[in-house]
Automatic annotation (TrEMBL):
<dbReference type="GO" id="GO:0000049">
    <property type="term" value="F:tRNA binding"/>
</dbReference>
<dbReference type="GO" id="GO:0005737">
    <property type="term" value="C:cytoplasm"/>
</dbReference>
<dbReference type="InterPro" id="IPR023509">
    <property type="entry name" value="DTD-like_sf"/>
</dbReference>
<keyword id="KW-0820">tRNA-binding</keyword>
<keyword id="KW-0963">Cytoplasm</keyword>
<comment type="similarity">
    <text>Belongs to the DTD family.</text>
</comment>
<dbReference type="GO" id="GO:0019478">
    <property type="term" value="P:D-amino acid catabolic process"/>
</dbReference>
<dbReference type="InterPro" id="IPR003732">
    <property type="entry name" value="Daa-tRNA_deacyls_DTD"/>
</dbReference>
<dbReference type="GO" id="GO:0106026">
    <property type="term" value="F:Gly-tRNA(Ala) deacylase activity"/>
</dbReference>
<dbReference type="GO" id="GO:0051500">
    <property type="term" value="F:D-tyrosyl-tRNA(Tyr) deacylase activity"/>
</dbReference>
<keyword id="KW-0378">Hydrolase</keyword>
<dbReference type="Pfam" id="PF02580">
    <property type="entry name" value="Tyr_Deacylase"/>
</dbReference>
<comment type="function">
    <text>An aminoacyl-tRNA editing enzyme that deacylates mischarged D-aminoacyl-tRNAs. Also deacylates mischarged glycyl-tRNA(Ala), protecting cells against glycine mischarging by AlaRS. Acts via tRNA-based rather than protein-based catalysis; rejects L-amino acids rather than detecting D-amino acids in the active site. By recycling D-aminoacyl-tRNA to D-amino acids and free tRNA molecules, this enzyme counteracts the toxicity associated with the formation of D-aminoacyl-tRNA entities in vivo and helps enforce protein L-homochirality.</text>
</comment>
<keyword id="KW-0694">RNA-binding</keyword>
<feature type="short sequence motif" description="Gly-cisPro motif, important for rejection of L-amino acids">
    <location>
        <begin position="138"/>
        <end position="139"/>
    </location>
</feature>
<protein>
    <recommendedName>
        <fullName>D-aminoacyl-tRNA deacylase</fullName>
        <ecNumber>3.1.1.96</ecNumber>
        <ecNumber>3.1.1.-</ecNumber>
    </recommendedName>
</protein>
<dbReference type="GO" id="GO:0043908">
    <property type="term" value="F:Ser(Gly)-tRNA(Ala) hydrolase activity"/>
</dbReference>
Length: 150
């Protein structure tokens, strides 16, 4: 699994002109799911996300987690994170998990993340044409790949 985590002042996902999810301060997470991903990736990534210390403490130092700060999260499926650009200029999606694997893993990631956060996590809609708006706070953007944990 690959994620791009953006610390935001606010974010929303709109589908067909209707806002599906919106949050104030927190994380907008773009999630890419690969063919070899599974529950072990979800477990590791959920723990990493909720404990990531990128929110400012009273001294203005990034030393607080989203759990400490009480922020919200939106997770948007983003198969394009799995793009391979080794050959030519047209990306290959060979490493992206097929729909029948991606959907349950996406839903499980969101469910487990919601449990760890202690509140509902906003979502997009898997496979939909989504309009994602955000105000990146900082800006702070972190990329994590569960296959490169070092």
């Amino acid at each position: 699994m690959k994620v791009v985590i953006q610390r935001v002042s606010h974010a929303s996902v709109t589908i067909n002109g209707t806002v599906k999810s919106s949050i104030g301060k927190g994380f907008l997470i773009l999630l890419g799911i690969g063919c070899e991903d599974g529950q072990e990736d979800i477990d590791w990534l959920v723990k990493k996300v909720v404990n990531l210390r990128v929110f400012d403490d009273e001294n203005g130092v990034m030393n607080r987690s989203i759990l400490d700060d009480g922020g919200d999260i939106i997770v948007v499926s983003q198969f394009t994170l799995m793009a391979s650009t080794k050959k030519g200029n047209r990306p290959s999606w060979i490493h992206a998990a097929p729909h029948e694997l991606s959907v349950p893993l996406y839903e499980k990631f969101c469910s487990d993340l919601s449990t760890a956060l202690g509140k509902s996590v906003g979502t997009g809609e898997f496979g939909a044409d989504m309009k994602v708006e955000l105000l990146n706070d900082g800006p702070v953007t972190i990329c994590i790949d569960t296959k490169h944990k070092e």
